[in-house]
Design goal:
about 210 residues; alpha/beta; Rossmann fold; 5 strands; signal; SGNH_hydro_sf
Length: about 210
């Protein structure tokens, strides 16, 4: 029974990622002149109405649905050219859903952060979110390992700040049902909780 179940989980994860992976070919949003904040990520970042929640900021949303850490690394050019003083990054879940090992994803993530680093820039690494579907146990173990590595990297290098969004959105180790539409993506309540925490922690005021 274990082999059929494992196969179903793997196939489910691949199918789920494939449905969203095609979106990664979309072009980034129109550039914002002199952004004060840039957000780099996948569909979870893309779906946030950041400019509405932070009207005092010039927000550059560089979230693209289905994107991976390698995809984000490849498209850093416009972000670096814009020279935003603050950058928020949330990445990795699409890699993990497609079967990449957490250590491999971390290696690519480190390259992203190295490229983003500038002495005058604040970089906030938002934890890769846990999921509730389609393979929560297998994927979330890798999510936990990746987040541990990212937290340690920020603490050791002091070049970034790790922001644990799972403490709010997934305190049980899976996304809370009230915050997600499908076990992976956030609903309005999820985004509002996310925005509220960023405001409460005053990251945008620093």
């Amino acid at each position: 029974m274990k082999k059929p179940l494992l196969l179903a989980c793997v196939l489910g994860g691949l199918m789920f990622a494939a449905l969203h992976g095609a979106q990664a070919q979309q072009a980034p949003a129109a550039p914002v002149t002199n952004p004060t904040v840039a957000l780099l990520g996948d569909s979870i970042t893309e779906g946030g109405l950041w400019a509405n929640y932070f009207p005092s900021q010039r927000v550059l949303n560089l979230g693209i649905g289905g994107d991976t850490t390698q995809g984000m690394l490849n498209r850093l050019g416009p972000l670096l050219a814009a020279k935003p003083p603050k950058v928020f990054v949330m990445a990795g879940i699409n890699d993990l859903l497609r079967g990449r090992a957490a250590d491999d994803v971390f290696g690519t993530y480190k390259q992203i952060l190295a490229e983003l680093y500038a002495p005058e820039r604040k970089i906030y690494v938002e934890s890769t979110l846990y999921v509730t579907a389609p393979t929560p146990v297998a994927v979330n173990e890798k999510v936990q390992r990746l987040n541990t590595q990212l937290r340690q990297l920020c603490e050791q290098t002091r070049r970034c700040t790790f922001v644990d969004m799972n403490a709010i959105l997934a305190p049980t180790g899976q996304l809370l049902p009230g915050f997600t539409v499908d076990g992976l993506h956030l609903n309005q309540a999820g985004y509002e909780a996310w925005f509220a925490q960023l405001k409460g922690w005053q990251f945008l005021a620093q």
